[in-house]
Amino acid sequence: MANLSAALNIEDLRLLAKKRLTKGLFEFCDRGSEDDVALRHNRDALERIKLRSRVLNDTSGRHTRSTLFGKPVDMPIAIGPTGPAGFVWYRGETALAQAAAKAGIPFTVASTSNTPMEKIVENGGGGRLWYHLYVWRDMEASLKAVARAEAAGFEALVLTVDSTIPYNREFDVRNGTTMPVRLTPRNIADLATHPRWLFGTVGRYVMADGHLPRYHNIDMPEGLSSTGIRDFLFKNDSLDWEFLKRIRDMWPRTLIVKGILHADDAAKCAEHGVDGVIISNHGGIASDAALAPIDVLPSVVREVGDKMTVIVDSGFRRGSDILKGLALGADAVIIGRATLYGVSAAGEPGATRALEILQTELRRTMGVLALTDLADITRDHVVMPHELPL
Ligand SMILES: Cc1cc2nc3c(=O)[nH]c(=O)nc-3n(C[C@H](O)[C@H](O)[C@H](O)COP(=O)(O)O)c2cc1C
What we know:
Layout: H1 10-20, H2 23-30, H3 37-48, E1 50-51, E2 66-68, E3 71-73, E4 77-79, H4 85-88, H5 92-103, E5 107-109, H6 117-123, E6 129-133, H7 139-152, E7 156-160, H8 170-175, H9 188-192, H10 195-209, H11 226-232, H12 241-250, E8 254-260, H13 263-271, E9 276-279, H14 293-304, E10 309-312, H15 319-327, E11 332-335, H16 337-368, E12 382-383
Parallel strand pairs: 4-11, 5-6, 6-7, 7-8, 8-9, 9-10, 10-11
Antiparallel strand pairs: 1-12, 2-3
Helix pairs in contact: 1-16, 5-6, 5-16, 13-14, 15-16
The protein binds flavin mononucleotide (FMN).
């Protein structure tokens, strides 16, 4: 088992994940697309923003509690959907749900989870659960998942709209990485040299379920070949505002649209009765030329901040990054890779460690800003690159 107490930050967890996973699976989780420009830019954009320290305010009672969609959270973070969570660790989605429940934050189950969504509700630790929706070419198969998510009691539906066009991930082609995982001449040596992952994850699925990990939330015809599965999982590029209307009509609870990078689109979401938007470039995956969500955030907050919940993601690795998002008007931050590295390294304890690290950093940096309550953070706490003294 990985030595988690030696992991002092998210990068340490990333290195533990790198050791345990095959190269192909690690790069699938870690990299962006094309030349990884958007991936790097997400970090650069966050790092260019500075926090303005304040002093001499008693912060000994500081805490990270907040509310999200009217309900309490122990910190203003939610775990976002990450498709391979169940490939990196046996029942990885349940592990993430348990870690989120312990940390008092929501967890988003991905459409492509390898554990049925109902089982994650049953075994996930009783925390707040959101269901993420990808819309496949066969739209009805996706809509069936919405009905299941409602019956299973999910609090919110997260409709991802930035991924209708296939990502250009050349490294996946080179590494021979496919989802679901398949044995190919290109990845066989990679698999053979990572027995901890191969036996500890894939082997356990085979022992428990009698087959390789599958997608359990997708109503796919039986007996599809791997090419058939790949074709089935092509996303539907005909999605439009009419479709959003349809989803709004059928989903009675909180509806969140993920993958917004323009204030006008956020305004349209508000007009369609959406409860919250996630400003996101899919962690640098959707387009390598994408804007960094943190740079788009202020314009979205100006446009819809008083009408709906605004969440931001992509590139958040430190507590100070989260404070930058909040100071620019976000209600919360979504975490993708930070907890994915944690669960890849060590299952639920690894994901819990990632959340502990973020919360410790958040509390620490609140002290530096002389903040006791996150509700008191303001735009004055951040200095944007163009505002820096020369
Ligand atoms: C390996 C991987 C798989 C992902 N799978 C999904 C997914 O199935 N659906 C989705 O909406 N977003 C998905 N995302 C995007 C995350 O939900 C989130 O937007 C992103 O990871 C945030 O950036 P960060 O990883 O830098 O925190 C995925 C991200 C990664 C890294």
